[in-house]
Amino acid sequence: MRRKRTTKPGLRNVSKLDSDFKHRFIGNQKVLASVVRELKRKKQRIVLTQGVYDLIHEGHARYLEAAKALGDILIVGVDSDRLTRLRKGPNRPVVPQQERLKMLVHLRHVDIVTIRHAHHEIGDLIRLVRPDVLVTSFSTKDFTRKMKKDYDTYCGRIVTLAPQATTTTSARIRNLTIEGAEQLANEVQKLTQQFLSGIRESS
After folding, report:
1. Number of neighbouring beta carbons within 10 Å of residue 172
2. pLDDT averaged over every residue in the chain
3. Which of 115, 113, 110 minimizes the C-alpha distance to 17?
4. How far apart are the first and last CA of the chain?
5. Which of 48, 69, 90, 109 is the most exposed, having the fewest neighbouring CB atoms within 10 Å of its CB?
6. Residue 87 domain-assigned?
7. For the chain, how many structural domains are there in total?
8. 160 and 173 in a common domain
9. pLDDT-derived band of residue 88, with 50, 70 and 90 as boundaries?
10. Do residue 77 and residue 114 come from a single domain?
11. Which residues constitute the domain of residue 188?
12. Which helix (H) or strand (E) segment is 113 a member of?
């Protein structure tokens, strides 16, 4: 009996507009390394970028579109919930990691999604993938000039993109917080007025 031929995760539909999570998400580092080797063997130009991707907005989509335009395969490293808290503070992320991963898989410019855990250094994924192009953003404060110099040897080149939209995740969260606080203040004021009116009517 002939054995059924299996396809490596991440290769079967990597060039198609397929939003199937199991084909696009590669959480295992060894599997990812194997897929990357196979893609390079096929002369595919690999672009890597990484970040939180919390509350995905137009800026994220434009950024990923610009990144994909620099190569054939776009790999996105996504910060886990714990890593995000370490980088951004205890109130982040707003959107949990599984949902962030799935949202990215549905974006047509993204080919492969992987995850960065808290025990990973910022350069671990860069050293593993050794991309033809590493794409960074001016808005990433903890990826310094010195780091770029250190990781330059693992990349064909490093491209730093300007913000792709006027909105940012932090600004959006601030607006939601302000709106929520204002709504709460209005509700409290309304309840206070009702309470005071009730006292006057009963006296």
Report:
1. 15
2. 80
3. 110
4. 92
5. 90
6. yes
7. 2
8. no
9. confident
10. yes
11. 168-203
12. strand 112-116
Q: Quick check: is 2 in a domain?
A: no
In angstroms, the CA 155 to CA 171 distance is 32
pLDDT digits (tens, 9 = 90+) for 133-142: 999 987 766 6
Model pLDDT for residues 132-180, shown as the tens digit of each residue: 999 998 776 667 778 878 888 999 999 998 875 555 555 554 544 445 5
Residue 181 pLDDT: 47
Q: Residue 49's pLDDT is what?
A: 96
Burial (CB count <10 Å: 0-12, 13-18, 19+), residue 185: exposed
3-state class percentages of the chain: helix first, strand second, coil last, to nearest 5 = 45, 15, 40
The enclosing H or E element of 182 equals: helix 169-202
Q: Which residue has the tokens 């995740």?
A: 169
Q: Among candidates 124, 83, 100, 80, which has minimal Cα distance to 21? A: 100
The answer to whether residues 182 and 112 belong to one domain is no
